[in-house]
Each structure stands twice: as structure tokens, then as C-alpha cells.
Amino acid sequence: MSVIIDRLDHLVLTVADLERTLDFYTRVLGMEAVTFGAGRKALQFGCQKINLHERGREFEPKARQPVPGSADLCFITEMPITQVMEHLGSCGIQLEEGPIERTGAVGPIESVYVPGPGRQFD
């Protein structure tokens, strides 16, 4: 017998700048910043959340080698890709790539790639 996974509940990102990360994901991507536990921060969207660890101030347990910028994330939206691109542009976010066809978890998707909050304004 093996374990059967139903869904992802949360993941943890180690970030260089907690406030910059919260701003990007709430202002640009519309997620909700939440505080839980002993003042920990997370980003809530749908039935998932992203817990945030700031580099050098990680919570236990943590990744063996927590490094900011080491994850690539793909989010699905119901908005047409043209509206997504317009919104990103209005937020001052330049696309790194796309729109481009990719293969998602359940089939074909159209993707745009944007720099994460640690790089978008460099």
C-alpha cells in the first residue's frame, strides 16, 4: 500500500525581503497576506497558501539549505492572458518570456514568465 496524495496544502518559500515579497504577491497577483502562529506570514489564495521564511530568520522545520530565489512557481488564472499581461504592465512588471504554450499539470497552458519579487525592479 502507498500514500495517496489529494492536493497541495501549502509550500514554504525562503525570501530575501519579506515586505517586498508580500507587496508583490498581494498587489500584483491578488493574494491575501495572512498572519498565523507566532507572527508568521503567509500568502493565501484559493484553498492553498505559501508560508514565507525570511532568509536568516527561518522557522523550524525548514529546508536543509534554504535559499531565496530557488523556486519557480506556476499559477493558474481564469483571466484571459491578454488581461494578465495588461495588469502586469500596469504594475511595472516586465515579462521575461511569453505568452508561450507549456504543459501544465492537467494539460496545455499558455504561460507568461515574470521575475520574482527579488528581481523585478533590479
UniProtKB/TrEMBL annotation:
Signal peptide residue numbers: none
CDD domains associated with the record: GLOD5 (cd07253)
Family matches, as InterPro entries: Glyas_Bleomycin-R_OHBP_Dase, Glyas_Fos-R_dOase_dom, GlyoxalaseI/FosfomycinResist, VOC_core
Domain VOC positions: 7-122
Record-linked PROSITE patterns: VOC
Bilayer-crossing regions: none
SUPFAM superfamilies reported in the protein's UniProt record: Glyoxalase/Bleomycin resistance protein/Dihydroxybiphenyl dioxygenase (SSF54593)
Protein name: VOC family protein
